[in-house]
Structure formats: C-alpha cells, structure tokens
Amino acid sequence: xxxxxxxxxxxxxxxxxxxxxxxxxxxxxxxxxxxxxxxxxxxxxxxxxxxxxxxxxxxxxxxxxxxxxxxxxxxxxxxxxxxxxxxxxxxxxxxxxxxxxxxxxxxxxxxxxxxxxxxxxxxxxxxxxxxxxxxxxxxxxxxx
Length: 144
Fold this sequence. Notes:
Layout lengths: L16 E11 L2 E6 L2 E7 L2 E2 L5 H14 L3 E5 L13 E6 L2 E2 L1 H6 L4 E2 L7 H13 L13
C-alpha cells in the first residue's frame, strides 16, 4: 500500500496540492492518475515535447521510467488553467524532485509558451541543456 508522501515542495501561493498514483503515461507530458477512486488526465505545466521523432521517443521513455505506477505529489498553479484539450495542468513531483524540469534538463523538451509561476526556473533548466548541448540542443550554438 503506497504511503502519503511528505514532499517538501515549493508551491505557488494559492495553489492546491495532493498525492495520487500514476496509472498510465499517455505521452511524454500527459499522465493519467488515480485519486479517491477516480481517474483523471493531467498535463505537465511548462514543457513542450516534439510530437514525434527521436526526442519524443526518449521523452516518453523517461516519463514512463520515472513516473509510471508511482505515487506523486501534484501541485496546481493559479496562473495556469486547463490545456487546450481540457486537462488540468500541474507540476508533478516525485519526492522533492520536480519532474517537469527533467525533460528540460535532458534536452527533450522546450519551455512552453505562456505564464506560470516557475517559468524562470524552467528557463534556467533549458539554458543548462543548451549549454551542455543535450538533446534538442545537440547541434546548436548558444551565446551565454
């Protein structure tokens, strides 16, 4: 029986936070969770992965390896509503680790358009991937 996690995570002011079990990985940035006996589809805030190709496949493999069948902490962002397909968008934590930024750090995703509370942190992770020439940034040159 999974236990409640007591992750010490920085939550945006006015956000909601809860624990749930990941039951399925739909795509690299969309997961299905089970909470209180109900299944819900959640999109990860702030990350955009290519729709196909090598980095889509790698991002999908990473998300499955890190999140599938795990108990995670989900946090809403008052600046962010639902995605274009009507799914709530959330930050996903495994323990105290913000998973959303993993896809950025490994270069499998870009920071999504739009405003969200942790945008500056996400942009730093993307810049680290650019500087390290990881993933999508492998064959690019960056200044700074």
